[in-house]
Design goal:
CATH class: Alpha Beta
Shape: globular
Structural class: alpha/beta
Order of helices and strands: EHHEHEHEHEEHH
Oligomer: single chain
Largest sheet: 6 strands, mixed
Distance between the termini: 14 Å
Number of domains: 1
Strand content: 15-25%
Length: about 160
């Protein structure tokens, strides 16, 4: 099954060119290693209205099955990715966020500070990931096994019942 991903990096410094984005490329490598495609990529500053606009545009385009965001999920006042995500999703997918936090807690107590959100807009799944490359990859690895089935369900694929 082909899954089409969009990867949105949220970082003031990376968006200004002051720091290279390493989380987005790390996620791209992991997605492509799974045999899937990354069809959209972008870097934005930590501005809630800009994040909402891109999430809405990408999800409503019908061109993506999964949007991964990386960054903006911590406690800093500029970390607004969860708020932007909640503003655009129609349904939350709390099990994904819970699974990522649970797995991360086995690695670091800082996982308790994660405010990642996951949810659905139209037929697109949006998943927030931490901003560090290590944290982003580790969290994505937790949910990767269920993404093909999730996408089948969102596409209303009749084969979805036989794959779980």
């Amino acid at each position: 099954m082909t899954i089409r991903f969009g990867i949105l990096t949220l970082s003031d410094r990376s968006s200004r060119g002051e720091r290279a984005d390493s989380s987005g490329p790390a996620l791209t490598r992991l997605v492509q290693a799974g045999g899937w495609s990354v069809t959209k990529e972008s870097i934005l500053p930590d501005e809630e209205s800009a994040i909402r606009a891109v999430l809405t545009e990408w999800a409503d385009s019908g061109e993506l099955d999964v949007i991964l965001t990386t960054g903006g999920t911590g406690f800093s006042p500029r970390d607004v990715t969860p708020e932007a995500t909640r503003a655009v999703i129609e349904r939350e997918a709390p099990g994904l966020a819970e699974a990522m936090r649970s797995a991360s807690l086995r690695i670091t107590p800082h996982a308790m500070l994660s405010r990642v959100v996951a949810g659905i807009r139209k037929q697109t799944l949006i998943i927030n990931l931490p901003g560090s490359p290590k944290g982003a990859v580790e969290n994505l690895q937790v949910v990767l096994p269920v993404l093909p089935h999730a996408v089948q369900l969102l596409r209303e694929d009749p084969r979805s019942e036989s794959t779980h």
